[in-house]
């Protein structure tokens, strides 16, 4: 069945996972048809049959209640993007669960706002720096979120008294209100959020030359 499949041109981009698309379901002559780009839920612990051949390709375990994005429908399989992989799920193990999907969308929005807030702070602190320096500021923010002696959310870290000076500034408020954040700062925030740490776990930074530490651009990280 999968060997005779005609492939869709292009791959599903990561941004599609953040698109909040209304899901429609309709009966098909054979199998169940889901709107391409919509969310579905894996109803049981199962396997994702990864490209290029669902009969002979790599098998990736997918846990029950995992959320996937539909890429293509078929009589027996549905091609999806799930947990960073793209491949096929048997239709008998997928369904539309409104409650789980809405919770997933809410989680994505929360993550998106966290990254946007961090990007705005990166622009305030290092908007005139090279990209490496912008990532470095984001890494400090995330290192604090992970550290036991600091708050465990991005917002609380940024607004902690006497820590990030721009948090109470007109510039920071304007960037958030108008969403006119530089693309490089957004990308730096995304990288830091997903674990990139180019400052070796540093929890602080200040103007280069003010103390010893790792110098990146015009800041020293320690």
In short:
It contains 5 helices and 12 strands. The protein has 222 residues and is an alpha+beta fold. The strands form 3 sheets. The chain has a 7-stranded antiparallel β-sheet.
N/C terminus separation? 57 Å
Largest sheet: 7 strands, antiparallel
User: Can you count the helices?
Assistant: 5
Structural class: alpha+beta
Percent in helix: 25-40%
Q: Mind telling me the C-alpha Rg?
A: 22 Å
The helix/strand series, from N terminus to C terminus, equals EEEEEEEEEHHHHHEEE
Low-confidence stretches: 1-30
User: What portion of residues belong to β-strands?
Assistant: 15-25%
The strand line-up of the biggest sheet is 5-4-8-7-6-3-9
Shape: elongated
List keywords for this structure.
222 residues; alpha+beta; seven-stranded antiparallel beta sheet; three-stranded antiparallel beta sheet; 5 helices; 12 strands; 32% helix; 22% strand; disordered N terminus
Any overview of this molecule?
By secondary structure, this protein is of the alpha+beta class. Helix content is 32%, strand content 22%. It contains five helices and twelve strands. The chain has a seven-stranded antiparallel sheet. A three-stranded antiparallel sheet has the order 10-12-11, covered by helices on one side. It has a two-stranded antiparallel sheet with strand order 1-2. A hairpin with a 2-residue loop joins strand 11 and strand 12. The longest helix has 29 residues. The N terminus is likely disordered.
